[in-house]
User: What shape does this take?
Amino acid sequence: MCRPVTAPDAPLGAGDLTRRWALETPAGPRFPGLTRPEAEGAGVRLRDVVDLSGVLVAVTLDAMLTDGAGPHLVDGDGRVVIVLGPHPVLTGVSVGMGPSDGDGRRVGVVADEGGGVWRWRAVADVPESQAIAALDRLAAVARTADLRAWAASPAG
Assistant: This one.
């Protein structure tokens, strides 16, 4: 049961008035900062999904320059996550990174589940000073089974 609802205080809506939509979920509004078409598409794709933990919704942010990285995703709290590129070893997943909140940032691997919906497969919040080490260690993960151990100790 995910249907579009207005989200007038969406962080992404501050710079783009079309990005003031979210999805109504059983836990309340999620994914603020979508356009109405993005919300409608994601709502259809997520209507039967029970577990929304780690779900990300693809968005088109033409004004955000990220030197070839992308797509851009929005998490349940309305924060942008950038897909940096395919994981160098693991198939079917890409490396993703969220914005800095001053203390740290979210990094991990994401997978495209189709229809504009992505999901974190392994994720960790790391101190800003350890973000590069966490990304390097993540790139060195050689087996999907080892992602859980990486998430437990992302910077080693």
Remarks:
- The mean pLDDT is 91.
